[in-house]
Amino acid sequence: MNGDIRTALYVVNRYWSTHWRQYFPGYHYPPYVLGAYGGGIRSAPFCGNRRVSYDNAVYCPYGHYIAWDITLMADGYRSGDAWVYLIIAHEWAHAVQNRIPARYVLRAKELQADCLAGAALFGAAADDTLLFEDGDIAELRAALRRLADDTPWTDSGDHGNARQRVNAFTRGANHGVYGCLP
Ligand SMILES: [Zn+2]
């Protein structure tokens, strides 16, 4: 799993570093990778003055870092390696949202992050930095369904239900970054 996490970080960073200027002003400023917490490794980090929650993964705008509970990673990884690629691409997408002009950020921030995750992973595959294996696409959809809310998106903090999350990711996969912007 740690090898897949390292590969996911490399691939997603490389995608955004290479393609940033096609879509956005400025340059790609990668988030700091704080990495794993929980599972006896270390306590959940603080984001501002609040500790981030366990069994979760986060992008924290204060400190511009991404981190994940190792238990969440390991639980999902048991059903397939695509899980860690999705989590990392999604949290990295929040870092992207934080660095682009506000006019590009949708109110449905979580669904946009799924879309940008799809754009980055499939964009990396088009660049030949990531090679999808048999079953990866099904695993990605299953992971999105598992991480989805039970109710449809109504509020900016919502993740959206399973259908909405799969649709958002697929839009990014099929149409790239432009498919995720207003
Ligand atoms: Zn999110």
Automatic annotation (TrEMBL):
Superkingdom of origin: Bacteria
InterPro entries: Uncharacterised_pept_Zn_put
Designated name of the protein: Neutral zinc metallopeptidase
UniProt organism field: Sphaerisporangium aureirubrum
